[in-house]
Amino acid sequence: MPSSHLFRPGGPLLIPALGVTQIFGYGALYYAFTVLAPRITAEFGWAPEWTFGGFAVGLLLGGAVAPVTGSLIDRYGTRLVMTLGSGLAGFSLLALAEARGLASYIAAMVALQAVTTAVFYDAAFAALTQARGSGARRAISQLTLIGGFASTLFWPLTSALLGLLDWRGVYRLYGLSQILVCVPLHLAFLPGRVRRPVSAEAAVQAVTEPVPEVAYLAGASRRRAFLLLALAFSLQGFVVSAMAVHMLTLLRGFGLAASVAVGIGAMLGPSQVAGRLVEMLFGRAVPPVTTAWVSACLMPIGLLLLLAGGALPLVAGAFALAFGISMGLSSIVRGTVPLQLFGPVGFGAMMGRLSAPGLVIKAAAPLVFAVALERGGVVLSTLVLVGFSALAAVALFVLARSRPA
Questions:
Q1: Structural domain includes residue 365
Q2: Residues 226 and 367 grouped into a single domain
Q3: Domain span including residue 40
Q4: How confident is the model at residue 11 (pLDDT cuts 50, 70, 90)?
Q5: Confidence grade of residue 57 (pLDDT, cut at 50, 70, 90)
Q6: Same domain, yes or no, for 159 and 229?
């Protein structure tokens, strides 16, 4: 009996299983591209803009299909959607490895990025919410703590594999990992179709006892909170996406040596994990909306440190620490704040609608920031990031002030 309880769908092994699939998902579908992009560009012999352009087009489509993915999760459950998503991600990686020209490359990249909404954090948060209901906050924190190792593991792993394989071989290996590792884990441990148990429970409560007015937002307050969250998540997504591609260029632009810039960049992963660990251990007494705006403030603070003394390794390290903690906590609040404000009913569709505008902006960020760096220089470009991240923090602060704890 204990063994059957341990291995049941939605049971105790759900978080470790999702943690593994998030590491493989983000590592293979997102972080590996940063390492492999120069090899792709060199083999095809085209400008880097075409390599990143295919990636951006894929992200745009991912933003368009995010609400649809969320609705499918609510209707059919995360087991079906995430299992199919992992399978499609694997075949898309295999197709990308066989691309022989611009058309086939873009088609494979579009297919790959379109399925990310079915396997990344938003889908995983929906799985935890379906399994844990309104008590999913701690589970979300635990999952992001595990998932934070994706970049730490896959950047060096991909670089090491390039010493043995070409970029096509690496993508073939990662495609097989999606099919052979992620598909079975999703199929075995994720909750199946949810037949609205939360809705039924809410209906009974509505008849037997009044639900407190502050439980979940409704009406105009709900729409206002949604717009503030969508704005904040979109602005933060722009900053994070731009820095994911151009951080080393930016650090070197401030005068740091290439080796030092790489070392500073490597601090982001551990900083993210450290922030998530602190939240998991001590954050239960803090409302998620408070965690959201406090952590969001660290992002512009870190960027201002970079402006003030980016040529000094110690100051640049402080930037990486603040920026990494902010990134790590922002992943948590993406799941916990909507859960606190809107409740677990229809959580998948809500996450899809919140993600859609951010994914579109995220897709444009690397190209827009590249142009800003070329025409405006590192100082002006960094000021743009300061402005965007500060505005996101203000939006979350306004949300927290208007939401009783």
A1: yes
A2: yes
A3: 10-192
A4: low
A5: confident
A6: no
Euclidean distance between CA atoms 400 and 40, whole angstroms: 45
d(CA 318, CA 308): 11
How far apart are the C-alpha atoms of 215 and 265, rounded to whole Å? 41
pLDDT at 178: 95
**What DSSP letter does each residue of 30-95 carry, written as one string?**
IIHHHHHHHHHHHHHTS-HHHHHHHHHHHHHHHHHHHHHHHHHHHHH-HHHHHHHHHHHHHHHHHH
| Burial class of residue 37 in the structure, from the number of CB atoms within 10 Å of its CB (0-12 exposed, 13-18 middle, 19+ buried) | middle
CA–CA separation, 232 vs 45, rounded Å?
A: 38
Q: For residue range 135-182, list pLDDT tens digits in order.
A: 677 788 788 878 877 877 887 888 889 889 999 999 999 999 999 999
Question: pTM score, two decimals?
Answer: 0.76
Q: Residue 357 contacts by C-beta under 8 Å, 6 or more apart in sequence?
A: 63, 230, 234
Mean pLDDT of 27-46: 88
Residue 4 belongs to a domain: no
Structure tokens at 94: 């295999």
User: How far does Cα 307 stand from its chain's mean position?
Assistant: 26
Are 157 and 14 within one domain?
yes
| One-letter amino acid for residue 235 of the chain | L
Q: What is the pLDDT of residue 25?
A: 92
The answer to whether position 187 is within a domain reads yes
The structure tokens 């399925």 sit at: 115
